[in-house]
Design a protein that fits this description.
The complex is a heterodimer.
Chain A lengths: L3 H15 L6 H43 L31 H11 L5 E6 L15 E7 L5 E9 L8 H7 L8 E6 L5 E10 L2 E9 L5 E7 L21 H9 L12
Antiparallel strand pairs in A: 1-2, 2-3, 3-7, 4-5, 5-6, 6-7
Chain B lengths: L1 H23 L2 H17 L1 H6 L3 H16 L24 H11 L3 H12 L4 H8 L3 H21 L10
Classes of the chains: A alpha+beta, B mainly alpha.
């Protein structure tokens, strides 16, 4: 049961604390418009390409059917309607791989001499009776001299029920690019992920995102900071992140991240 | 559409920013989070404006974005060239500093529970639905978080001589 005095006091403290907080409205407006417009442009381009591909598919499938007078009267097109926000929990899958298992596996993929320390598997987030969710870890990296030289973070995202918005947001680069961002494409030109580099006052972050075959995203990032969060105000442990983009991509591309099934029951 | 979106931002950004500030405990990260949530709202504005409660919808996007991104250590805030309205106050009030420091000690999900329950005044059932948790888990986390905050806020209450207990 919640302590009514404490919860009321907390609300009052929040109100008091934030009452005169200035809101950076103009930056929020400008930044969200820039990011939002970029997403819309990419979606529009994707829809056009998708429409062309669909048209080609329909031509191939429908024309022979019509020629043979074998139209399927039982098939009715459905209107997806106006989708409402769906925040459903994703089904169990490889994205629930326990952090301890992930950490064990990444140890085999790190360069020779590099090890992990001060690992965070999210256990401290659990409420009594809760099971760990899995699907991520954060760890610091130690070189062969025993020095902490930065951090590593790997996340396995489940497929999102949002019409591709999450994938789009994490695999394409802003226009114009505000960071050193490169979209990764397959042989057919389809976007399969991106690399991104941030440099905030010497805190360098290298990120690689890839789309899994089940459309769940795989994300890895390395930094020359070993702080819990990387960005403004973080401390640096080395002049550059210990892992290159190529090394990060090699780790993330390993099939080990696709090879885990939740226990039955 | 842009006019409608900009009106929404003008009317709602303060409340979104406050929620984000409590969730992230940092002005930098709060800005990143609100930008990210608003960008998603802009990109699907037809869906937002068609929702029964657009404000609740965008707050839901904010919470989901926070939870989705909390496992990432890096920030992706988009820099904007002219910071025209950077905070002009001299310093954070002591209450705010103490509150944010205490919130930062909580696990992110516990922080989200606290913000939804005690800042946005959502019910246990609404909070459970928003966070994909059971109602029992929400109650457990609320209780645990409040106990932690009580201890932390007591420990950091400044004394007249400037030292902390």
């Amino acid at each position: 049961m919640t302590d009514p005095d404490l919860s009321t006091g907390l609300h009052d403290l929040m109100v008091r604390s934030l009452d005169d907080l200035p809101t950076p409205t103009e930056r929020l407006r400008a930044g969200s418009l820039q990011r939002g417009r970029a997403v819309r442009r990419r979606r529009r381009a994707g829809a056009i390409l998708g429409g062309v591909a669909l048209l080609a598919t329909v031509s191939v499938v429908v024309l022979p059917a019509l020629a043979g007078s074998q139209a399927d009267e039982g098939t009715v097109a459905t209107d997806p309607g106006n989708p409402q926000p769906t925040f459903a929990e994703p089904p169990p899958g490889r994205w629930d791989m326990p952090g301890a298992v992930m950490l064990h596996r990444v140890a085999d993929l790190l360069p020779d001499g590099m090890t992990t320390t001060d690992e965070n598997l999210g256990d401290e987030e659990l409420a009594p009776g809760e099971e760990p969710g899995g699907g991520w870890f954060a760890t610091d990296l130690v070189d062969e001299d025993g020095d902490t030289v930065g951090g590593l973070n790997l996340v396995l995202y489940p497929p999102a029920d949002d019409h591709g918005a999450f994938i789009d947001d994490h695999t394409t680069c802003p226009e114009p690019a505000a960071t050193a961002c490169t979209e990764l494409r397959d042989a057919d030109g389809n976007t399969i992920g991106r690399t991104n580099r941030f440099d905030t006052d010497g805190v360098i972050v290298r990120e690689v995102t890839l789309v899994g075959p089940d459309e769940g995203l795989l994300y890895i990032a390395g930094s020359n900071s070993a702080d819990d969060k990387w960005g403004e105000g973080s401390t640096v442990a080395a002049t550059a992140p210990p892992l290159s983009f190529a090394q990060l991509r090699t780790i993330l591309s390993d099939p080990t991240w696709l090879d885990w099934t939740p226990p039955a029951g | 559409m842009d006019d409608e979106f900009e009106e929404f931002v003008a009317a709602r950004s303060a409340q979104l920013y406050r929620s984000a500030y409590l969730l992230t405990t940092s002005p930098h990260a709060a800005e990143d989070l609100v930008q990210s949530a608003l960008a998603k709202a802009y990109a699907s504005w037809w869906r937002v404006s068609g929702a029964g409660d657009p404000v609740a919808y965008v707050h839901g996007v904010l919470i989901k974005t926070f939870l989705s991104e909390r496992r990432r250590r890096s920030s992706s805030e988009l820099p904007v060239a002219e910071p025209t309205d950077r905070a002009t106050r001299d310093a954070d009030p002591a209450d705010r500093v103490a509150l944010l420091a205490a919130l930062a000690e909580l696990a992110p999900v516990d922080r989200a529970v606290v913000v939804l329950r005690f800042w946005e005044d959502r019910s246990v059932a609404q909070t459970a639905a928003d966070l994909d948790l059971s109602e029992a888990a929400v109650k457990n986390r609320s209780l645990r978080a409040l106990r932690s905050l009580r201890t932390l806020l007591t420990d950091t209450t400044p004394h007249p001589n400037g030292s902390a207990r």
